[in-house]
Amino acid sequence: MTAVGVLACASSADRHAPQDPAIDQRRRSPRCASLPRWSRPTAGRVDFYYWYYGTLAMFQVGGARWQRWNEAIKTAIVDHQRTDPGECAFGSWDPIDPWRLSGGRVYATALNCLCMEVYYRYPRVFGGR
After folding, report:
1. Number of alpha carbons in the 13 Å side-chain half-sphere of residue 79
2. Digit-coded pLDDT (tens) for 30-74
3. In 55-85, which positions are buried (b, 16+ CB within 10 angstroms) versus exposed (e)?
4. How far apart are CA 58 and CA 69, in angstroms?
5. Mind spelling out the 3-state secondary structure of 37-79?
6. 3 state SS of 32
7. Which has the closest alpha carbon to 75: 35, 104, 102?
8. 14/104 Cα distance (integer angstroms)
9. 0.85 cut: is pTM over it?
10. Domain boundaries, the chain
11. End-to-end alpha carbon distance in the chain
């Protein structure tokens, strides 16, 4: 939820700079600083919900943090998409995060697609890179 807090602060009308203390404090928290990395389901590092809001938040924050996050999310997501055109799951992602029982393959695929489209769906609040 820390990533959601960063996004909310960045999107609120009363925030005028990416260096805002409320945004900076949240984006430096250990949970928000955890870069996406694909791992075995038992390792507990994959959380598509967190990745989605983290991607939105870091995109709004921009700068070096966004660049690091963006490289990590692209590696985590693109490298693990199902690529065998002969299987029914072609183009999707395996539901291996904590929400796998509730959302399944459709949920995993939807959130991973949304992460990869963040550049096209929202303008930056603060502009710049």
Report:
1. 10
2. 455 689 999 876 556 899 999 998 999 889 888 888 999 999 999
3. bbbbbbbbeebbeebbebbeebbeeebeeee
4. 7
5. CCCCHHHCCCCHHHHHHHHHHHHHHCHHHHHHHHHHHHHHHHC
6. helix
7. 35
8. 38
9. no
10. 2-121
11. 24
